[in-house]
Structure formats: structure tokens, C-alpha cells
Design brief:
heterodimer, A: alpha+beta, Helix Hairpins, Heat Shock Protein 90, 3 domains, 5-stranded mixed sheet, disordered C terminus, B: Arc Repressor Mutant, subunit A, 8 helices, 12 strands, 21% strand
Amino acid sequence: MRRWWHRAPIRVRLTVWYSAALTVLLIVYASATYVAVRHEFHERLEEEAHIETSGAALNPEQRIEQQLDEILVVLALGLPLIVGLAGIAGYMLARRALRPIDHLAADARRITADRLHERLSIANKHDEIGRLAAVINDAFGRLESSFEQLRRFTADASHELRTPLAVIRGTGELGLAETRTPAEYKEAMGSMLEEVDRLTRLVDTLLQLSRGDAGTVRLSPEVVNLGDLAREVGGSLSVLADERRQRVHITAQPDAVVRADRLVLRDAITNVLDNAIKYGPAGTVIDVRVETGPGVAVLAVTDEGPRIPEEHRSRIFDRFYRVDEGRSRETGGTGLGLAIAKWAVEANGGQIAYESNGAGSTFRISLPRGTGAAEESRS
Amino acid sequence: MVRVLIVEDERKLAQVLSSALAAEHFDVVVAATGEDGFYRANAELFDLVVLDLMLPGRSGLEILQTLRQRRIETPVLILTARDGVDDRVLGLDLGADDYLVKPFALPELLARIRALLRRGRPSDVFRLKAGDLELDLVTRRVVRADRLIDLTAREFELLEYLLRQQGHLVSREMLARDVWKEPRRATPLDNVIDVQIARLRRKVDTEGAARLIHTVRGVGFVVREGEP
């Protein structure tokens, strides 16, 4: 019974409480009325007995009127009293039922950007307020993780921007410290320019991502054959694979057609394939497979490189996230390739995922299939 | 002599631009404010105007608009820091001939300026030469010192582009856009370009021959006889 009571939603508890209070009050009211009426009747009986003995008389009609008046007074006085009492009881019950909201408000006021790890305390997780608090806690949880991501991103971004700046500054200072040969000056300036180039690319990429976040990138969707696009990207990156004696093997179902912004989607595929070429060991095959499923077209890029450890998988699409710090910096990546790929795929209504079955790594891009013919005839 | 007006309020940038253009033997005039630029562009004759869009006082777009309204058809290349499409489109709509987004590479600016100055003149070149290297645009044959060089389509385009800009620096950005037709920078194309250049060089600058394709560290590449 107690258990049921605790699990009951507030509306049920309020109803039960209030019904109980009202029952008690009505019983009191009814009893009082009953007692009053009973008293009147007894009085009348006594009076009648008295009249019979004395003979003096009010007529019966007048007497009934008089008694009804008295009952009316009892009713008229009792009703507002009972209504008043019922009101007070209702108020107290409502206050008691809603007290958790005040606690909730106080808790919520305590939680600020610096204390996002705190949560609202939940007195009863089964009632409406408990459920509300749970929902708000969930929202705080999501907020906390976005905040954390943002904080990490800001720290990473400033680190990535500072590194080239430090190189430029150091090279400049060193160059001016002593008189050097023209060749050495050229070398120093070249090195500075390389870093400027790196900075520029970084800023451009960040700008593109932040535009993506703000939703200000205007996409121009068209009908794209995923296989053709894969072959195009494969062609442009084939020299890189060649250098590593790798072979990019593309198999495509001809009907894998999607509706997407071609350039944006190409960015995604380029980044994923570039990634596979970088991490696939020399002399291996990189397998690009374009297939269709119910309602989707899938492009999967598989390399024979080392698998990404489980603990890193959830974050590989994060900006600047690197599984192996040293290795990726060496290969000259910005650390934004997969973040761009993720954005580019999602902007086109698709999904990108990493999976590993046995040997190697697979990045799988799935996009909703565009009904090629219909779309084309419309445009 | 080609006269170029630079309207740019950032002193350092104006200085760099003016030295770079002077090194190309242009006669350079610098205007540091919108008013001055507007006055000069109206009063004097120039072959080209390099116009910064964000100027104190009179904005670049205003200057451009007024110039075109007065039927002054000097080619105008606009510089903009904002890489938003609207700004560019507005500039081009108002009659600018080309644009560059800051920060830009100097070789790129020079190439654009050369292209604007060349505009209107027919290019009847069928054969490009550098030293003993010859590239025939019609037969698509490349010969160096009487030896036929077998190039892939991409290598041919790359060499053609470098030869057209002969003696001038070419940045990776220019190659990405003009040879690879890749409008975005956010793609890992730089490695591809480096590899492609290395391969082209292996075929063109064989052992014993003088080097023609030079890498200028931090800037890009240049085809030139002798030292870069």
C-alpha cells in the first residue's frame, strides 16, 4: 500500500488527498446539520407536549416556518465555514504536493556553467515532478557533454594555432639573431611561409566547420552517382596510393544514386579515402565498396591498417582528436579530416560510422537513396 | 609601363603589394584612404586598380560603383577579408573583374594581375617553351632535347600551366584551383600536388639535364632556366 502510494502520480495523490479531506469535512457538516435538525425536532415535540398541557398556541404552520428558518441559519453559517475549511485544506495539500518544485528551482539555480556536473535531486522518481527532474537532468547531461566538447575543442584549437605561430616566431627571431647567408635566410622564410600555409588551411577548415555548425552553408543538392564520385576521388588520390605501393580497388553498384551536394560529399569521401591511404600499410589494398540497401546507398572504405582501439572510437570524429598524437602530426594532417567528413555526410542527411571486423578498419558512409530519374525530371 | 593603383589602408600590406608589383616592373601608386583612391582613380589613368573592400571613409564597393557609373572601365581586382559569398558576388556585380580573399599568396595576386592585363589580347600560342623543353598544345607532345617525354593527362596539364606562368611563382593553391579544378581548400590535395610535381620532375628534369622545375619552399613552384 505504501509502495503504491509512493509510485502514484501527483494527480492521483492530490485527488485522493482532497477527496479524503472533503469527505471528512462533509461528514462534519452533515453531522452538524443532522444534530441541529434533530435538536429542532425535539424542541418541537417538547413544545407540542407543552401546548397540549397549557393550551396556549402558535398555529402549526407558523411553528414549522420558524423551525425551517432556524435550519436555514445553520445551513447558511455552516456552508461558508465548510467551503473555507475545504479551501484551506486544498491549499495545504497543493502546497505540499508542489513543494518539490521549489526544491527543483533551488537546485536548478545552483547549477551554472562551472557546475554542470551537478544534478537536480529527485525525491520521487515516479511522479510528474520526478519525471520532469529526470528530463531536466538529461538535458543538463547533454549540455555538460557539449560544454566539455567545446572546452576541449577550444583548448585543442588554440594549441593547433599556437604551434605554427611558435615556429614562425622562433624562426624569425633566430634568423635575425645573427647575420646569415642568403641561403639560410631563404630557408628560414620558406619555413615561415610553410607554417603560414598551415595556419591558413587550419583557419579555412575551422571556418567551414563553424559555418556548418551555424547552418549557414547553403547546399546545392543534385543527383550524384556514388560509384562515379568514388572513382573520381579515387582517381585524384591514386598518386598518393601509388607512392605507398597501395592499390585502391573500387567496386560499385551502378544504381547507388543519392541526392546530395556533390562538392561537399566529395570532401567527405576524399577525407575518408585519404585517411585510409595514410593509415593502410604500404603495399596493401584499399577496398572501396559502393552498395545499396533498402532506401540507402552505402560507401564503405576498408583499409588493412591497425584497428582503432575501442576506447577511441567514439571520439575519432571529434575535431582535432588524434588516436596517435605523434603519428598523425607527422603525416601532416590538420586533425580535422574526419570531422569535416562527418559534417559533410550529415549535412547531406547521411551517417558515417567506423567499424572493424577482424582485420582492418572500415568507414561506412550511408546516405538516403535519391530516386534519380524522378528527381531529374522534376528539375 | 603598366600603371597600377593600389587602394589599401593597411600600411604593411600596401607596402608589400607595392614592392611586389614594382619588382614586376609596374609603375605603382598607393592610396591609403578611400577618398584618395577614389580621387586618383577618377583623375588619373591606370591600367589596373587593386582595391581593398574594407576601407575607412569611402568603402571599396562605393568607389567601384562610382567608377563604373562614370564609365571608367579600368580593370579592378578586389581584395576582401570576408570569405562570404555575398561580398564577392556584390563586388563582381558592381563591375569588379576579379577578386582575392585575404590572406592571399603573392604569386596568386601577380598571376591574376597578369591575366587581367592580358585580357582582350588573343593568345595564339600553340607551343610553349622553356630552354630545351617544348610542349605542343595541338599534338600534345612534350619534347626535351629531342627526346619525347611521355606524360599522363594530369602531368601534361600541370606542365602546361607551369609553362604558361613561366618565370613566375605558382602556389599550390593556384594549382589546386586551376589544374585540379578543386574549389575548396579543406581537402587534402597538397600531398597530391607534391607527388605529382615530383613525378613530373622525374620525367622532365632527367639526370644530366639542367633543372627546369624548381620548388620554392613555402611558396610553391616555378619553371625557369637556371636558379629560381
